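Much of our argument rests on the idea that a fold can be written as discrete symbols. Part of our work consisted of pairing the sequence of a single chain with a tokenised description of its backbone. We regard such an encoding as a compact summary of how the chain folds. The amino acid sequence and the backbone structure tokens for this protein are reproduced below.
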Amino acid sequence: MTTRHSLQSAALSRIVLALLLALALLAAGCGSDDDDTTADTTTSTSTGDSDDTTDNDTTDNDTTDNDTTDNDTTDDDTMDDALPGEPWDGFASEGDLLSVVGVAYDDVLNIRDVPGTNADIVATAEPTADDLVATGRARELPQSLWYEVAADGVTGWVSVRFLAFMGATDDATAEFLAGGPPVEAETMVDLAQPIIEFYASDEPPSNMVQSVGASVGDLGEITYDVIGIGDDAIAGYRLHIFGMPTASGESFALDSIERTYFCSRGVSGDFCA
């Protein structure tokens, strides 16, 4: 009996030891699974955020902005390089108003696509137009200077010799009459001749142009532009001449002279700069 009982106790001990060993192995296996999952999740999240930030914000956007700026600058330089002549500082700034001068009343001023008298005409301006807007661009050709202007929605180039800043207007009648006897003539054109010659220059010789046609109402009227009087600031005058019909109705006597200054370099107050 004693031997049989001992064998049963030994068998029971082995069973208990086997169960304890199995439980220990199971606990060790569960610990490894948790560590691997945490490591994989952390690595995946960190790498994904870092790559997206670098590609979208830094590389793509910076490259696009730089390319756009470079192309705009190149286009502007190419446009200027393609124009005849050389850049010129000029006196007209962007937005300045310029007036047409020295163009005959039965003619127009040509506005061209590029500087030069052989360039295509894109628009015209009337002989007394005073609303040409400077763009601030100017060019110098071997024998002429040109301003770029905007007129009636069109932008083009005009020779500087036909443009000026419009200055003050005064009454020049007394000044002229102080130089000689009162003037009388059969026509307004004849009446105007000694007046425009009085204000013209011999050296350099002035260009005298009838910019407004003669008209007769209660008074006779005629307008001449006198351009080039040898003054750096004053380009010339616009002389608006009025004549009173004589009692016989066969001639005109001088009534008054309205003088407007043409300024070459701009206007400061009521004076040419």
